[in-house]
Amino acid sequence: MFSYCTDPSTLEGLSWLSCYLTTGKHVNLYISVFVVLTLLAITAPVALLFGFGAASAARSKFLPLRWFGKGYTSIVRGVPDIAFFLFFVIALDQAFEWMRHKVKCPDWDQPIRQGIDFVVCDAAKLPLSTSPQWVHETYGFFLAVLTFSIVFGAFAANVLYGAMRAVPRAQIETAEAYGMTHRQAFWRILVPQMWVYALPGLSNLWMVLIKSTPLLFLLGVEDIVYWARELGGTKTARFTDYPHPNWHVWYFAALLVFYLCFTKVSEVVLDRIMTRLTKGQATAAGEAQRKAAA
Amino acid sequence: MSCVETIQAYAFRSLGFGERLLPRGEYTLCEHFTLIGSGLIWNVYFGALALMTGFFLAVALAVGKSSPNPLWRKPAEWFIFVFRGSPLFIQFFFAYACFLSLKGVSSFFDPFTSAWLGALVVLFCNTAAYSGEIFYGALLSIPKGDIEAADAYGMTGWNRFRRITFPTMLRLAWPAYTNEAIFLFHATTLVFFSGFPAWRQQGDALYYASYFADKTFNPFVPYPILAFYFILLTLVIISLFGFVNRRLNRHLPQERRAKPRLRISLIR
Fold it and tell me: Which domain, by its residues, includes A172?
């Protein structure tokens, strides 16, 4: 990185550290922070969308749809979530390959599950074995995002379902009195009002989402945990210009601090949003705000 | 091998008793059930012990956090913030790395690098922090009248805490604490994925489930079995805690009793 880094063995103290922290592998570590942020940026809206769909399904008048919505929202109870993460990554991958297999190789006559092997024709492999490395990585990341969205969608559905029920019944009755249909009342009255009830639950969910990002490592993505493990291990002088003993402690301490700062900042920001949203609302918090101002 | 033989060979495999070699080749449903169930012993061990020991630290943290003296309040606040604000997964990694380097300093830290103690310490601190926050919230919502009544009877200090504050706090916090207990048991599945080695492949339920999934490349059998076991475990916890809840609330009129509701709060 810097011009004086050409011969690291001559360096001491801070200049050594500045060179060490800007090696190619460390840059990978910094890039992986953006991987985490990208995951959060994509997962949050997608999970919210899933959650909204499931919450509306759970309120549906059509029984099978209601069963689907309720079943989906209750998968999160009773079972450890990391089991879901590990399950969905493989299951989704196999589901995609199976569908492509059915479409692309209709005349394939062997069974797909042969004993302990999962065999699909070459054209159905995802990603294709000929595709470059970055496609494989992107596909892995895409699977991880989808998995996160499915699991967190169930949580968001729980929150939104509760929020929809928290909107005072009188509001819907008024809408009906004005002759609105079920659908109109839902979109014009219920949905705009539910957010203030949903926000505490959603902000809690956001914190939980942040804290679950290290699990990307378990899903096979090269995230910050991966790089911290990689870089913190003992390095001998034979393989690197920057030999050091086992520094895992320092790397994981840095990750710990990173996450603490991240959650703290989120907390402050979410508090601000909540204060703004409750302004003028007919809830206890809104009332308290009004009294404090007066 | 018949199913009974499989159970005899593998029921305590996770503790190191019975057959040492894991089954090979085609796996039967019986082997799935037995090994994953055997791993569940570890989950129960971690969850139960962390919960029981963590309870005392949690009460201390809650009392500390509500203390007017900053000498007590600040450490409790920081402890809760650090353990609630960072992912459990990273805490495991960090603790393992810490114990590994401490091992070089003194042989006292040798057992800490194995999961049975090291991971237990992390889970203990973690659950203490989460429950501490729950108890703190309950302390704040103790009805003013209860405290005033205690004052009127001339109760102060330890006497008031033991007879009024503590039981009411416990009663108010219990539904949320039940939830915390359930998610603590779920969190125990992270242990063997976070640096702590599964010595001789003696792991927990998720460790064996993912072992099967890796070997057979078929996630549709082991994970539902794991889910089945955990739903069972959750039901047991709910009924145990429900029993305590009824006892804590036995002096209240029927309709004022708080029912535990499963609320969300997943990965730490």
Answer: 21-249
* Tokens 């207990």 belong to residue: B181
Predicted confidence at residue B252, as pLDDT, reads: 80
CA dist list (Å): A121 to A89, A133, B247: 20, 21, 62
Tens of pLDDT, residue by residue over A263-277, are: 999 989 988 988 887
pLDDT grade for A216, boundaries at 50, 70 and 90: confident
* Cβ contact, residue pair A82, B190, below 8 Å: yes
Say what the ipTM of the complex is: 0.85
Q: CB-side exposure of B258: number of CA atoms within 13 Å?
A: 18
CB pairs under 8 A between A and B: 135
In a domain, A133, yes or no: yes
Q: pTM for the full model?
A: 0.86
Tokens coding A16:
């050594």
Instruction: Give the highest mean pLDDT range of A13-27, A185-199, B73-87.
Output: B73-87
In a domain, A77, yes or no: yes
Sequence-separated contacts (24+) of B113-119 with Cβ below 8 Å: B114/B196, B114/B197, B114/B199, B115/B42, B115/B191, B115/B192, B115/B196, B115/B197, B115/B198, B115/B199, B116/B45, B118/B196, B119/B46, B119/B92, B119/B95, B119/B191, B119/B196
Q: How many structural domains is chain A composed of?
A: 1
Domains and CATH numbers, chain B: 3-256 (1.10.3720.10)
CATH number at residue A200: 1.10.3720.10
Mutate to test the interface with A, among B228, B229, B263, B267 (most CBs of A within 10 A): B267
A79, A116, A217: residue with CB nearest B26: A116
A259 belongs to a structural domain: no
